[in-house]
Amino acid sequence: MTPPDDATAPVRHPDAPAPGELLGAHYAHCFGCGDAQPHGLMLQARAAEGVAITAEFTVKPEHQGAPGLAHGGVLATALDETLGSLNWLLRVIAVTGRLETDFVRPVPVDTVLHLEAEVTAVAGRKIYSTAVGRIGGPDGEIAVRADGLFIEVKVDHFIDNGRPEEIQAAMSDPDQVRRARAFEVNP
Ligand SMILES: CCCCCCCC/C=C\CCCCCCCC(=O)SCCNC(=O)CCNC(=O)[C@H](O)C(C)(C)COP(=O)(O)OP(=O)(O)OC[C@H]1O[C@@H](n2cnc3c(N)ncnc32)[C@H](O)[C@@H]1OP(=O)(O)O
Asked: Which residue range or ranges hold the Thioesterase domain (predicted)?
């Protein structure tokens, strides 16, 4: 998870959403961010300065692991989604290769997890990023932390590996196709 010596600092794409703007879902049925996914976390990420974002996630009763406490896997999902959203500021499509998570404090149900994430380095197709989740407010205690290694892929990664039903539905949605392809032709 340590960037190699030839890694470079991330560069915010000129067309990236301005600081303060919501990024929007990359796919309406995404478990992490989709607004058409009733079982999902519906995480909304907002661009920050640089190659960084913020997001909020409210822990619901259906996210419990132990009584009244968030399941660690759900918190890892929130971190994964937050880190993944960063790649939109680079205008790169990427998937999680590795995710390392520290669970520092228990997170009770009804808590708002205030997430902040930033890309720290880029080396070829590898994107290194880090995130924290705080409770008790945006400046509260750190409850969770994660480092991510995302790997850049082409749209074909999804076309080649996804289930045909969902791929065909996505490919017949002009907004989805425009959004996905724009990242490939405007590097
Ligand atoms: C028109 C149609 C509509 C489609 C529209 C879609 C739009 C979608 C938009 C945005 C989607 C974003 C979705 C975000 C969702 C939240 C994030 C997730 O949960 S993603 C899901 C979980 N992750 C996976 O499913 C990855 C599964 N893994 C793979 O597919 C492969 O392993 C992959 C692509 C990651 C790498 O495979 P390789 O064959 O392309 O590349 P190799 O050569 O193996 O790796 C490249 C470099 O990365 C390192 N690397 C790869 N995996 C690593 C690992 N686990 N740990 C450390 N290094 C790793 C390698 O060592 C290599 O490094 P060296 O270039 O040699 O220095």
From this structure: 68-127
Q: What is the pTM of this model?
A: 0.96
Q: Is 33 a domain residue? A: no
The answer to whether residues 159 and 181 touch, using CB atoms and an 8 Å cutoff, is: no
**Using CA atoms, how far apart are residues 82 and 62, in angstroms rounded to an integer?**
20
The CATH number assigned to the domain holding 129 equals 3.10.129.10
Structural domain including 103 reads 44-153
What burial class does residue 126 get, using C-beta atoms within 10 Å of its C-beta: 0-12 exposed, 13-18 middle, 19+ buried? middle
Question: In sequence order, what are the residues at sequence separation of 6 or more whose Cβ sits closer than 8 angstroms to the Cβ of residue 3?
Answer: 120, 121, 123, 126, 128
Any domain includes 83: yes
Is the ipTM, as predicted for this complex, more than 0.90?
Answer: yes
Q: How far is the CA of 153 from the centre of ligand 1 (A)?
A: 6
**80 Cβ below 6 A of ligand 1:** yes
pLDDT tens-digit profile of 95-153? 999 999 999 999 999 999 999 999 999 999 999 999 999 999 999 999 999 999 999 99
